[in-house]
Structure formats: structure tokens, C-alpha cells
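Long-time lurker. I teach an intro course on protein structure, and each term I like to show students one example going from raw sequence to a predicted 3D structure in C-alpha cell notation. This year I'd like something fresh instead of my usual example. Would anyone be willing to generate the C-alpha cells for the chain below so I can use it in lecture? Attribution to the forum is fine with me.
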Amino acid sequence: MKDIVTEVRAAFTDPVSDEECELVIPPGGRVYPRPGEAKAGVAHPGCPAIADLAIGLDAFWCPKCGWNGRISGAWAGDMIAGAGEA
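-- Reply from a regular --
Happy to contribute to a lecture. Here you go:
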């Protein structure tokens, strides 16, 4: 029987807005995916889109609503690496 793999979500507070957001890591998610692969990003209040994650800049940005927030790139990288090991 195959294990069901689900996305991983980890809550954090965006220090720019003081709003709760979630790092979203889909199964096999990567920050810089190859074409057709899932990508990790950030769920943020008031928008159904997942914001783009820029680990090297400690930031995320949503092309749909324009949300520009901050995230610890080191923490996000560790979470993504850990989700890949699960």
C-alpha cells in the first residue's frame, strides 16, 4: 500500500505586516523547480495565490496581490529540506 504524501505547512509571522502566514511545501516541492515540478511558497491572508519565495533575500512576493513580506531564508530552507526527508 502506498503512503499518501501531503503538503507540509508551517506557520510564521511576517514581521513586515505582523500577520500570520504559512510556508507551503507541496510533495516534492522545491524553491526553484524544474518545469512541471511543484514549488514551495507562502500562503498569506486575503489572497488565494501562493506567493513566490526568495530564500536568498529572506523575502516572499505575491504576483497576484502584490504582497511583499519577509521570512527567514535559513528557517525556510531547513523546513524544505526536512520535508524532503519525510
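Some talking points for your students: The radius of gyration is 13 Å. The chain has one domain: 11-85.
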